[in-house]
Design goal:
The protein is an alpha/beta fold and 337 residues long. It has two domains: 5-142 and 227-325, Malonyl-Coenzyme A Acyl Carrier Protein, domain 2; 153-219, Malonyl-CoA ACP transacylase, ACP-binding (Alpha-Beta Plaits, 2-Layer Sandwich), CATH 3.30.70. It contains 15 helices and nine strands. A hairpin with a 1-residue loop joins β4 (179-186) and β5 (188-195). α4 packs across α6 (71-92).
Length: 337
């Protein structure tokens, strides 16, 4: 494979029982990725203290769903399935990660870590450790007294809203609690995040404005100020991780633009800052995808699991075709183990 690629990496919510199994069956490189993840997490305190004795590969392939859907489990599981897909995809195509030309990579929330790993900025081992800690820290923040004071944290999807309308809903419904825009997923698809009581007030306000409001089944108020305790823990972990210059463009969820060095900071140090900010700031995925659609004209590839990002791209740029690789596109003879 010689043509340059733009890679899209899914985030939390893409998890499903069986994810990554087709790649595991088709590729020795994918199998090695799951084996490495099982071994690394077997010694990771944030995983073992809550994993109920399950290897990550077992959880991905067989569930149970109630455990896979928990924040601290779904994040390392999705990351591992995505990297297994990437390595398997390249192997079947006769290439390697270092040989494959890349124009840009982007990931939705958790997927930004996958993107940085694909771009060579963070090692697989460090990225897996970070997303495991991130998931645990986010779950702990969701269970904190501050979050529970307003009935717990949750999220509310607004369909048909502009950014100004979404902010108006927040301003009218917030009161003394937390309620902010958390995800700009596509035109007309914005997610609010905050205390449950504020989200409950927001739904009828949105309806009165002609918008559709749908409560989401989530573990907490992600990408809101209620995640500040998780951001503090993540900052401490990131301080000890080596981040290298990416070998291609990597999109920032926080700015909606490619990662670029701040004045007075190196690019790796700026990436650290943006990853911490990402937990309490909105994810500007629509802006990420629109920038890529405008500035890159090569093949767009969505890594496993799922096809969510291809669906969002159809709403953002109808002319941009994304090929999803939830399973291998061409049946392959499994490589020898």
């Amino acid at each position: 494979m010689t043509s340059s690629l733009t890679i899209l990496c899914p985030g939390q919510g893409a998890q499903a029982i069986g994810m990554g199994k087709a790649w595991f069956d088709a590729s020795a490189e994918a199998r090695a990725t799951f084996a490495d993840a099982d071994a690394l997490l077997g010694a990771h305190p944030a995983w073992m203290s809550h994993a109920a004795g399950l290897p990550l590969s077992t959880l991905c392939f067989s569930g149970p769903a109630e455990r896979l859907n928990q924040t601290d489990a779904s994040q390392p599981a999705i990351f591992t399935a995505s990297i297994a897909c990437w390595r398997g995809f390249l192997s079947i195509a006769g290439s390697t990660p270092s040989q494959q030309p890349l124009t840009a990579v982007a990931g939705l929330s958790l997927g930004e870590y996958t993107a940085l790993c694909v771009a060579g900025a963070i090692s697989f081992e460090d990225a897996l450790s970070l997303v495991t800690l991130r998931g645990r820290a986010m779950q702990d923040a969701a269970d904190s007294p501050q979050a529970r004071a307003g009935g717990g944290g949750t999220m509310l999807a607004l369909i048909g809203a502009t950014e100004d309308q979404a902010r108006e809903v927040c301003d009218q419904a917030r009161g003394s609690e937390v309620l902010v825009c958390a995800n700009f997923n596509a035109p007309g698809q914005i997610v609010l995040s905050g205390h449950k009581a504020a989200c409950d007030r927001a739904a009828p306000i949105a309806s009165a404005m002609g918008l559709r409001a749908t409560p989401l089944t989530v573990a907490g108020a992600f990408h809101s100020p209620l995640m500040a305790p998780a951001a503090d823990r993540l900052a401490r972990a990131l301080a000890g991780v080596t981040i290298r210059e990416p070998r291609c463009i990597v999109m920032s969820n926080v700015t909606g633009l490619p990662h670029a060095a701040d004045s007075g900071r190196s690019l790796p140090d700026t990436i650290r800052v943006r990853l911490v900010e990402q937990l309490t700031h909105p994810v500007r995925w629509a802006q990420n995808a629109a920038w890529l659609a405008t500035h890159t004209k090569d093949e767009f590839v969505e890594l496993a699991p799922g096809k969510t990002l291809a669906g969002l791209m159809r709403r953002i740029s109808k002319e941009t075709k994304v090929v999803s690789h939830d399973v291998p596109a061409v049946p392959a003879t499994p490589a020898s183990a």
